[in-house]
Amino acid sequence: MTSAKANDSIGALRRNLDAGSGAAKPRNIDVSPLIDSDGGLIDRSIYTDREIYAQEMRRIFARSWLFLAHETQFKKPGDFFTTFMGEDPVIVSMDKEKKIRVYLNSCRHRGVRLCRADAGATKMFTCTYHGWSFDLAGALQSVPNETAYPDTFKKENWSLIEVPRVETYKGLIFGNWDKNADSLEDNLGDMKYYMDAMLDRDPEGTEVVGGVMKWELEGNWKLAAEQFATDWYHVNMSHASALMVLSPTGKGPKADIAATPGRQHGSENGHGAGFPTHPKSRFDAKMVHDYYDYDFLRERLGDDAVEGPMTTGHATVFPNFSYLPVNGSIRVWHPKGPDKIEVWAWILVDKSMPQDVKDAQRLYNLRTFGPSGIFEADDGENWSEIQAISGGFVTNSVPLNFQMGIGSEREDGTYPGQTSELYSDAAGRAFYRHWAKVMNTPAWHETN
Amino acid sequence: MSEAINIGSVDDIDEGEAKVIPAAEAGTEDDIAVFHAEDGNFYALNDECTHETASLADGWIEGTEVECPVHSAKFCLKSGEAMCMPATIAARTHKVEVVDGDVLLYPNVPVAEQA
């Protein structure tokens, strides 16, 4: 078990699980009976079962491209940010060569979380327990009372566990524990077109403003990831009161907006994006709308992007990164057990925007999405309601329906990849099709 | 213009209740709901909610509005106007008069919005 390892130190004890060493050998569940992605049926146990959740940690989060941070969070060597890959804590930091490197945030000595700050700047990561200290390249620099260790103890064998693959796409930093994974860009594929409508409006690129908003929800992480991939359907119902508050008449949007046409993209790698299509698609925050030169954007991104995914819409990059272009919300759905999500949300703006426009977008974001956003609260409530009752045996035995728009997916000649109508579960079916495939495929750490 | 239809005595429809006049009887394309509103007056709208399939006659009459029993869209009984999400399209109105204790419905005769 060496060649495919992210780091030879992982599993170096070679747990003898088959011989009954005491640690339970992970049992891999065949999830194909739980997902009918062609027929649009989902077994509810995928949101509640603890063994399935543990398998997701091994086979989804330990081998998928996971969003970590934005490049503008790191300016100087030593700048760091702590986050999670699945439930694994990691430190994202800039080394002396200004390269972004990602380490497991756990001391190699006794396993304490090495860095407890959310973000900051440092010269060294020093453990608060016994004082083992690691430099920005992850190397063990200092061991108090080192002379007491035997001659066989070599500090170079106790570097931080490093995430072997770190790649960026237009400012977004992703990491992957699988050193043989397809490149990030290959994995994103057609999804890049939809992401560009948010990430590439400004030739200068994007930046994040403010801190990271974090809040907890009762609910399985897939409920949120799936909704952002596939669910425009809930908007008029779930968000009726918010839409009324924001509409000029106070009664909600006009008929042609409430029943908008649009497209929804679902990819074979599980990514999804949906968006209304309208010749006058615009940004909701007035100052942001006034700031943009839509003719310039049409030339830069193309008419179809400007009239579609550039403004109002939703998207998920499999497994747990989602975004909303209209308000610049980018977020990760951190799994915290099968029934809990920790949401981490950043606000993304264009670098070239004047400060007052950035402020306007940030305030619009806070009003609508985020822990106190008038739309966000509706969504969290729905997910938590699903989760709260899922422990009932009968409840958990009844499949859920993802059948809207079955068979409508096609290449429409305008938008890349397979798309369906906006009101559809097509991207949800694609999300779960990919989820099932990955869950049923041994990962790098399982092969000899 | 249609002739008026006598749909019965004012006492036949309690305040806060509504009666459906089937399309065949009204000579219209759609069923009509005649409401006895809380202001004591009678109003008529197409019975089907403009949002999705639902009978407004089964809804909740509050003041001079009716709330759809399915998705809680509200319509003004006087003008038919959609007052909130998820409805965005007005319901069609039909003129109603009370003459000598009888409720007279004028199918397909719209009511001008009352100030």
From TrEMBL, chain A:
Top-rank taxon, per record: Bacteria
Record bears the keyword Metal-binding: yes
Entry annotated with the keyword Metal-binding: yes
Matching Pfam families: Rieske (PF00355), Ring_hydroxyl_A (PF00848)
Gene Ontology molecular-function annotations: 2 iron, 2 sulfur cluster binding; dioxygenase activity; iron ion binding; monooxygenase activity; oxidoreductase activity, acting on paired donors, with incorporation or reduction of molecular oxygen
Stretches assigned to the Rieske domain: 66-163
Residue intervals passing through the bilayer: none
Matching InterPro entries: ARHD_Rieske_2Fe_2S, RHO_NdoB-like_C, Rieske_2Fe-2S, Rieske_2Fe-2S_sf, Ring_hydroxy_dOase_asu_C_dom, Rng_hydr_dOase-A
Keywords assigned: 2Fe-2S, Aromatic hydrocarbons catabolism, Dioxygenase, Iron, Iron-sulfur, Metal-binding, NAD, Oxidoreductase
Family: Belongs to the bacterial ring-hydroxylating dioxygenase alpha subunit family.
PANTHER family given in the database record: 3-PHENYLPROPIONATE_CINNAMIC ACID DIOXYGENASE SUBUNIT ALPHA (PTHR43756:SF1), CHOLINE MONOOXYGENASE, CHLOROPLASTIC (PTHR43756)
Record protein name field: Phenoxybenzoate dioxygenase
Organism whose genome encodes this protein: Neomicrococcus aestuarii
Automatic annotation (TrEMBL), chain B:
Assigned keywords, A-Z: 2Fe-2S, Iron, Iron-sulfur, Metal-binding
Record's keyword annotation contains Manganese: no
MF terms in GO: 2 iron, 2 sulfur cluster binding; metal ion binding; monooxygenase activity; oxidoreductase activity, acting on paired donors, with incorporation or reduction of molecular oxygen
Name used for this protein in its record: 2Fe-2S ferredoxin
Any matching Pfam family: Rieske
Keyword check for Metal-binding: yes
Residues in Rieske domain copies: 18-105
Domain of life: Bacteria
